[in-house]
Amino acid sequence: MKDALNNFQRVLEENKKNGVQDIPRAEIQKCLIPAQGQLRSAKFHTSFISFLLKLINLKVINDIQMIEDVLDYFLKIKDIQKEELYYKLIQSFNTFVHSDFINFGNFSFVEKCLTLVLYMKNSKIPIIHGPAATSLQRLIELLSDSTQLIIAGQGFDEMNVVLDLDNQQEQNQQQMTQPIDHSKEFQNLHSMLSDLIKLSDNVRPHWYPILVPLDREFGLISINNFLTSMGKFFIQYKTISELLTDNLILILKKIITTPLLRSQVVIETFKCLKILVENEQSEVVWTIVISQIKQNEHSINKNLAFQTLIYFVQNQVFLNKLVQSLNSEKNIILEIITTLSNLAKEVQEPSEAEWKRLGELAHPTINLVDNSEVYPSDNGLVCRMLSEFQSRFANSLCVYADQQKIQLGNLIKLQSNEKFNQLIDLTWKHNLRAIKYLLLKELDEQTLQNLLIAFQQYINIVGSIQMKSAQNAFIKTICEFCKPMQGEEFAKKHIQINKMVLNIANCLGNLLECSSWMCIFKTFEECENHYLRNRLAKNSSQEEQIKTFDITILFQSLDQLFSQSPTYGNEHLITVMDAINQITIECLEQQQTMDQKKSNVQFGEQKKYFSLSKLVELIKFNVFRLDVFWELIIAHFISVISSRNTNLVLNAADTLSQIIFYGFEYLTKFYKKNQQQNNQQFIKDKWSNKDSIYQQTLFQPWVDMCTLRLNDIKEIILANILKMIQNNGHEISNKGWDSILILLLNISSEQTTLFVKQGLGCTEQIINQFLSNLDGKQIFQLFDIIDNFKSNSNEQNINFQICNMLWHLGDYITKNNSNQEQGNLLTNEQLEMNLKEIFQKLSVIALDPIPEIRHSAIHIFSNLLIHLNSQNQYLEWKKILEEIFLELMHKITQLFQDKNQAKELDVSQWEETVKSVYQAFVKLVKKYFLVIEESSPNKDQDIEAIIRQSIPDFIIVFQQSKALLSMEATKQLRELFLYQPVICLQNFEEILNQISEIFNFPSSDIKYLKTVILHITPDVLELLNDIIKLSKDILIEQVIDTYYKILEFPLIAHMKIDLIQNKIFFEDNLAPKQILVTLSQTLSKQSPKLIPRIIHNVKELIKDPPNDKYKHMLLKRHFSQFNTMMDNNIQLFFQFSELYEYILITMRNNDQYIYYSELLNEDKSIYMMMAENYLSRAKTYLQTNKEDSLKVLQALQQILPDRFLLDKQQGQNKILQQENQSLELYQIELITEIYRGNPQLSETSEFQQFIQKLHEMSANSYIAINKLCLLSQNQFVIPYLLDASQKILEKGIGDEVHNQKIILDLLNNLQSISIPDNSFLLFQQLSGDFIAYPETSLLQSEFGHLFYLMPQLVQIITHKSEEIRIKVKEILEQISKIILKQQQ
């Protein structure tokens, strides 16, 4: 072996030097022969094979004979068991499986390759056994490529097809040269197939290894691979076809009939049959398959026969054969279909175990091509196969139709002799029969779905070619299985079938005939009940939840049943509607046979008719062509509504109303969108947009339905009218409103209360929102409608609704009439007549028993009349106010009076009504005043007449002892007065008298008193204040008397009932300031009688001292306001001076006026307040009126505190002492100032009295002694001054503690003053004695008073107070200087 290799190496080197690439075969054999002897050395062979592999890859070994020698070498060493060797062996072998070597020209080499593959397949070593199948397949592919050239060279003329060779260039070269003789290769091809067929029959070919067991599976697999790779051209070659027909088919039939074969062998056998279907003898194949299917027992043969048949049915040959056999006596295809139909009938229900296996299947069928795992055949699998067959067969029919240019899905008309028509007519009954039997079985979901898909395709086919009987049969069959049998539950199967029927109706609805649609509608009508019953899950299992979800989807999908109907032609759409209508008629006929009591169901309990609801849905999808079917639909509905079945009638009425809605909405949008275009879609006159005639057409069915005497229908109409107005009122035009108003007028004329609520609701919607869309005639109709509904109503609240409508009507009429641009104007006569009618209706409603309605009517009356007023309709306005409203106010007042006297329970409610009507009256009159300024020449007479007519009613109100009502009346009177004060003053005398009566005698009713004091009083005072502001000498005394009555009223009431304990806090309301302030501004213009009237009332007020703190507070506040009045007009001071004197003297002489000030810890008493005020005003007054000084002095001196009062003050508290001292100071200063400013007054007796008063007060008042000093220039004053000074100084010597300040002030005053010279020539003492001093006496000097008081000054020098001693010393020094000066 070593020598052989060395020799081989030497040859290679020589060839390389010589440029020779090929190696002689002898050299290779020299290496191979020794190598074959080394059978036990696996390592050697592994290395040697690697060496050979390199030579092959380097193309050193490229001759077929060399390759064959190497392959022989491989066959000899194949049994050496070494894994690495095996790997190298297979790797090298795969390099031989190449197109350069594998062809029928190298047949012996091919046989050896097959032999090696058989060894590999039979080996138990995985590394060898595994690649066997791949190697075999690759061999077959290469042989198949080689066979193409053989067929082209030997059998072209015998073939009925044109071959398309892959290599066009090679083909062109062959045409240019002589044809190549492939007879030997063809012979090898034939031999190869023959050998494989023999092997399939367990006959060993010559190349088959003896030691390898016969493997027919290898033969079948090889044939399968070979025939599959070759394709249909190989089978059509005559010589080969004969070989297959005469040998292979017989062997396959033999194999199939052989029992107990391995399943893989059977599978490969049926794969061969599947390939042979396109052979001329395909009928033999079908016969074999049918024979297997007809077996009673379950087997894999039967299962695979089904699989093969399923493959057949989707093959073009199958249908071609079927078409070719249409007129022949024996039709093998029809026999297949019939057989399967019978088989479907005989299939038994699968057992539970079979169901479990079916559930585990990953795919619905066994795929022979992919060689997937095979399950044992059973009943469930048979059903699945039969279902798959029907699905594939139906699909094949659709493919054939497409080939024949037949467009399924559209209605087409075929001649009866056309092949496709004959084909369907021949097979549909058998297929339907098979499907029906299968549907009776319990099928798995996928099997059932395949069957249902086939069903849909059949219906598409028979519907397209208008085979009515077939279509009806299919639809009827599938509909039968949509619902469960009696006693069964609505299961998953039924849901699945329902989905398919929905899909058929939706997608193929354009193909279905009337009877088919009827069947579908009836089915879904029943199934809908199942949907409703099963919408809720019975448990929480996943299966039940999925079922519930599917039912929900079904229920929702049912609403989309006609989603494709817009694509239907008009005639077909009418057909569908006829079907629905026929269902309704059948329901009507069935109901007529039922008991009248059961069928006559009330509207609220009526049954929902499926057909009617579906008709609505159909029209909803096709409303764009409403004119096409409108007449049909209306005629149908009117006939149904005219029946005696109330239940159906009501459903039909409701359904028709929905159709009207859909039509209205669509047409409105359509005309809006196309308003600028001349669209001729609706060419009929009654669908024209002119004057909205189409709306009249749409609403006409409602008008026709109203003629039927059935109240429930009218209720439906009313409900839909209301809905139409609410949703589309803005789109309704003239003709539409005509129809609606006619409907409302007809329904309102019925003598029943049933329609009142809905009818008024419709009317109210029209009035509130759409009056602008109505013309005058239509508006007038509204009044009749309102009257009709009101006359039929027994509800109390209806007037409230009518009030609102009357308001809108009146408001619109007046506004519309004032707008000259409006087209629908009313004449003046129409305006007056209708306005009067509106207000008369409101005046009647204003007397309604329900208070809210009364108030609403009054409010609307007033506001509407005011609005009319603003439209300058004065004459109508005045007439309505005088003739209607004042009469209404009088009636309400009288009713209230009667109820109050009778003490009826609702008197408080009528009290509120009286308030409301009086408020409205004043509001109207105020507006009236504005209008008549320009509208009436006799305005004063008109206003006075209206006010005069209202006075008696106001008086009645005040007479009813209703505090709140009186308060409201007072407010309204004040409002009235503010707008026409003069006229009111001339007519308010009785009113004021009646108001005054309120404050005469306090009631014992706590609530009444509280209202009077806290609420009525302020309003009355405001009214009185307004009257005073007018400055007219009318009612003024009456006003003042009432004012003081009001002031005293709470005090009088408090004497009877403790107001504070009852939480009636009246202090802040005792004396409002505004009246007296106003009075001060106008008093000078008032009657002279007024001031005495005020004085009289004040005197009456204070004649009795306060007996409680409240009167004290009243007096103090009132006088505070009285003082303010004086501030605003100081000229009134002199007129009220006497009153001031009376007040001050009265208070000074009664300690009660001081007692409550101390009790209440007030800063000032009333007396002090009045005195200070009086003094201040006196001073101010005298600045401009000096001529009245004496009169003022007389008054001032009269009210000066006397000795008794001053002594009494010593016992008062310090605050009052300070107040008195302050008053004393201010009063004395004012009088002193007056006397000093008017020296001529010092000769009067009043002056003497004043000096005497000062002398009296000097003992306790430093102010008095001070003023005496200031007035000491008067000779009359000196005796009083000296006497008072002597007493003070003497008292100071005895009581050094308490008189220190008085003494010091006295000494300062004495030191600062000077008296007239010669004052002591004839000096008269207070005792009456006269003393005369010489002229030379020091007493006659200007400081004579100091010399006169020298004895007292000398005594006081020893006073304990240092200040006093110093002051005395200064005086004495001053006296000494005077004496020394005189001595000089």
From TrEMBL:
InterPro entries: HEAT_type_2, Mon2/Sec7/BIG1-like_HDS. It holds the Pfam family Sec7-like_HDS. Residues 692-764 form the Mon2/Sec7/BIG1-like HDS domain. The lineage of its organism: Eukaryota, Sar, Alveolata, Ciliophora, Intramacronucleata. This is Mon2/Sec7/BIG1-like HDS domain-containing protein. HEAT repeats lie at residues 1349-1384.
